[in-house]
């Protein structure tokens, strides 16, 4: 198994979240809400993120509420738990959002 797919304990997740402001851990996933100026910008952001997710084979649950997008990250292939790969996706989301 890839090292970044090792299931993280709740303590490991909470410790790592210190470096991810606004992200929360609940229901065996990490989650954060992002606000956009329009529905179109929200959809465009997800379209830009998709190639990265395909490349590393990790796809977040994405909930669009008009101009708000909520990302839920967990790895289903390891029983719906949080892994380091979830934090790779969270890092990319943060990187892309901060450059918008």
Automatic annotation (TrEMBL):
One of its GO terms (molecular function) is 4-alpha-hydroxytetrahydrobiopterin dehydratase activity. CDD domains: PCD_DCoH. The keyword Lyase applies. Keywords: Lyase. InterPro entries: PCD_sf, Pterin_deHydtase. Its EC number is 4.2.1.96. This is 4a-hydroxytetrahydrobiopterin dehydratase. It catalyses: (4aS,6R)-4a-hydroxy-L-erythro-5,6,7,8-tetrahydrobiopterin = (6R)-L-erythro-6,7-dihydrobiopterin + H2O. PANTHER family: PTERIN-4-ALPHA-CARBINOLAMINE DEHYDRATASE. Belongs to the pterin-4-alpha-carbinolamine dehydratase family. It comes from the Bacteria. Pfam families: Pterin_4a. GO terms for biological process: tetrahydrobiopterin biosynthetic process. Gene3D superfamilies: Transcriptional coactivator/pterin dehydratase.
């Amino acid at each position: 198994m890839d090292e970044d797919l090792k299931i993280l304990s709740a303590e490991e997740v909470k410790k790592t979240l210190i470096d991810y402001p606004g992200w929360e851990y609940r229901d065996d996933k990490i989650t954060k809400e992002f606000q956009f100026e329009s529905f179109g910008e929200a959809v465009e952001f997800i379209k830009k993120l998709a190639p990265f997710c395909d490349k590393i084979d990790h796809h977040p649950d994405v909930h669009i509420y008009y101009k708000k997008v909520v990302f839920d990250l967990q790895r289903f292939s390891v029983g719906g738990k949080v892994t380091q790969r979830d934090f790779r996706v969270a890092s990319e989301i943060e990187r892309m959002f901060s450059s918008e």
